[in-house]
Amino acid sequence: MLKNNNDSSRVFGLDILRAAAITLVVLTHGAYLIADTRFSGFPYIKSIDGVDMFFVLSGFLIGSILLKEINAETQFGLKALTNFWKRRWLRTLPNYYLILLANYLVIHFKVIHEDISQFSWKFLFFLQNFSHPFYGFFWESWSLTIEEWFYISAPLLLILFYRFFSPKKSFLFVTILMIIAPLLYRISIVNPAIDDFGYDVGFRKIVLTRLDSIAYGLLAAWINYYYEQLWNKHKFIYFFIGIALIAFIVNYKVPNTTFYKQVLTFTFTPISVMLLLPLLKSIKSAKGYIAATITHISKISYSMYLINLALVAEVIRDNYYPTTEVDAVIKYLLYWTIVIVASTLIYTFYEKPIMNLRDK
Question: Helices 50-70 & 141-162, crossing angle to 10 degrees?
């Protein structure tokens, strides 16, 4: 039975955002199962990509941690940086390498039809999409590489600026740099002749083009830390502006060959999510089974993200493709059930014990 969300270390509003993000990702990856039925397009609500929500939330949470570190009485240096990396990597790497191995095995034994020749040493060091596209193997790892390089680059830059400026200015300079550099890089590689696939793997899923999505979370953390009154005073206004911007993004349809799609959409989207944070962060806790379910989905979201595509959706696609509408609905429900149950087991018996070890 799920418990109420009464863990004081969690912020329920941020759990809502995280749960919404993973729900959107799983909905997208399982959509083909009901594509030819009357339920095609379920849940019939347009939204931005759930991964963009994850990016901004990661930047906000990690930024908040780094701000506390650099404003502490002790000097922020290599020792603090090493401790930060150790905690981050104990949180992210064990699951990543477990599912990386699982992806290799399901392709090697022909459980799913992907290209095992695309696997290389780069996957071990999060280099598979640093500056060039990859495809055909462990597709969903594209976003994990962006986050891992953010975990490396932001603290390193912070230490560098911290030697010459105050904590407040250092953090702001790092944030601005990480927002401007990817933006300028996207502008420099604009390609009006690119096709939809090239846009997806060459703009949307490259480390160098997307680090600013996480940096907007850093900006939110900086505003929250140094201007908390301003952050909270207009939280409802920010929220509605964010929702309006999301509505614009999902309804303004232009080709992927345009400057807007290749450059500006990757700026507007994280800004829209950033504007939701003040209101969501103010929702500290909630009670009841719905709240408990949201918190649980939030907790297992990392495992859900890692397994839902290749290890569940593609296994069904390549071995048990729906043959009738009823069969499609049953397999769609089965897809969701497997993702949630398997992720809960991974979280309970693998992910959480490692986090407990880290905290000790």
Answer: 20
- Return d(Cα 52, Cα 61) in angstroms, integer: 14
Question: Could you tell me how far CA 125 lies from the centroid of its own chain?
Answer: 18
Using pLDDT thresholds of 50, 70 and 90, give the confidence band for residue 124. very high
Tokens of 47: 């939204």
Please count the helices (runs of H) and the strands (runs of E) in the chain. 17, 0
Q: Note the pLDDT tens digit of each residue in 231-262.
A: 999 999 999 999 999 999 999 999 999 999 99
Q: 250-280 burial, b if ≥16 CB within 10 A, otherwise e?
A: eeeeeebbeeebbbbbbbebbbbbbbbbbbb
Distance separating alpha carbons of residues 306 and 351, to the nearest angstrom: 12
Residue 231 dihedral angles phi and psi, to the nearest 5°? -60, -45
Distances (CA, A) of 198 to 96, 182, 312: 26, 18, 26
pTM above 0.85, yes or no: yes
**Inter-residue contact 143 to 119 (CB < 8 Å):** no
d(CA 21, CA 15): 10
The rounded distance, in Å, linking the Cα atoms of 255 and 194 is: 10
CB contact at 8 A, 114 and 310: yes
Give how far Cα 241 sits from Cα of 217, 228, 235, 266, Å: 17, 19, 10, 17
* Contact yes or no for 308/272 (Cβ under 8 A): no
Of 6, 1, 5, 23, the closest CA to residue 301 belongs to: 23
